[in-house]
Amino acid sequence: MDPLVLGLIVAIATIIVLFSGVSVALGLLIVAGGFLIIFDGMRSLELMPEIFFGKLDNFALLSIPMFIIMGASIASTRAGADLYEALERWLTRVPGGLVISNLGACALFSAMSGSSPATCAAIGKMGIPEMRKRGYPDSVAAGSIAAGGTLGILIPPSVTMIVYGIATETSIGRLFLAGVIPGMLLVALFMAWSLYQTWKAGDVRLLGAKPYTWAQKIEILPRVLPFLAIILGVLYAMYGGIATPSETAAVGALLCLVIAMVIYKLWDPRALWVVLRDSTRESVMILFIIAAAGVFSYMLSSLFITQSIAEWIGTLDVNRWVLMGAINVFLLIAGFFLPPVAVILMAAPILLPIITTAGFDPIWFAVVLTINMEIGLISPPVGLNLYVINGIAPDIKLKTILVGSLPYVGCMILAIILLCLFPGLATWLPNAVMGLG
């Protein structure tokens, strides 16, 4: 059978299996095992355990559970509320300062937790009721938090970037640095739109500043600065050549747990158990998907599907930006239905040779891919962040949340266009800090 036709059949079979309701990892194993048996016979199954566990034999994978523990320990405390309150107190005199405070808190909490749903929940519980009380439109209150929560997979340290680095054998340190400027760009675009929408639809009299004394502004800093110091310390250790990403993740996780216990009195063993239990559950899920995707990638390579697709793309007489546009459409559609980790692990083995052949930088492409995945987090039918916001504020209709988040999708698309026009937004900082790759 022609490998391209076979690839189409594999794609259809994968979609059917994943839409049947089985977990992503199990679905990938079913598809991979089924096609290996059909075309290579039962003996091919003997290789599956070796490939499955071999994919997990990677020291860099240790950083995933460590960063997840780091985020879970923060999410289990009042750190998000304190971060939000600190920014509100310091930005209260800025026009539209409350929505800026929310987005700034989302960006900083994302950097600490790396989790989009956790960011939405932590900041939204405080920010949405306060914005609505001040007269901000529901669409601004809900949409800004939903969009701000997506920054967790772009701003370092990002578990999604770690997964991409492992799947494509790309430097995780460079990937983290590549997400910094685009992350700040997205925050600026989100803030600009939020301020415009607030000015257009809000009652200026209700958006007045709440006065805070200097004593009130300063008293909250000791509860926030230690976490920010950990972020800076982790990044300095990683890029200063002091430790590897896995080692810095372990130290960061330990320090976050200690600070949560000291500052927020997280002494109850049951509370600590919940942090470790939830972190283990999420880590195992991600690692299971990584291992299953390794088997799936082996199946694609064994049946010459990956190579044939890359060769076919290379023979197409189309502009490389047309090709990149098609890839972005594919990623957008995939992100609507699948979690970011699954899309990266399934698509990276196929897309990497295509983009490198077309002359695109894999580090730059990682940022473009991640922003596409961010769009999926606030777009139906999955749109995880939309449902998190709806759970926080059930009296705000899901339709209102969706309408409020759509302009932020436009901001993300604009960011992708800017990255295409100015690739240095993603590549300059890694090259400046770590030299030309």
From TrEMBL:
Chief location of this protein within or outside the cell: membrane
Pfam families linked: DctM
Segments forming domain TRAP C4-dicarboxylate transport system permease DctM subunit: 14-425
Residues passing through the membrane, by range: 6-39, 59-79, 99-124, 145-166, 172-196, 224-242, 248-267, 287-309, 321-351, 363-387, 407-429
Location within or outside the cell: Cell inner membrane
Gene Ontology terms, MF aspect: transmembrane transporter activity
Alphabetized InterPro entries for the sequence: DctM, TRAP_DctM
GO cellular component terms attached to this protein's record: plasma membrane
UniProt KW keywords: Cell inner membrane, Cell membrane, Membrane, Transmembrane, Transmembrane helix, Transport
Bilayer topology: Multi-pass membrane protein
Quaternary state and interactors: The complex comprises the extracytoplasmic solute receptor protein and the two transmembrane proteins.
Entry-linked NCBIfam families: dctM
Family: Belongs to the TRAP transporter large permease family.
Chain's role: Part of the tripartite ATP-independent periplasmic (TRAP) transport system.
Protein name: TRAP transporter large permease protein
Taxonomic source organism: Roseovarius tolerans
Taxonomic placement: Bacteria, Pseudomonadati, Pseudomonadota, Alphaproteobacteria, Rhodobacterales
Gene, per the UniProt record: siaT_7
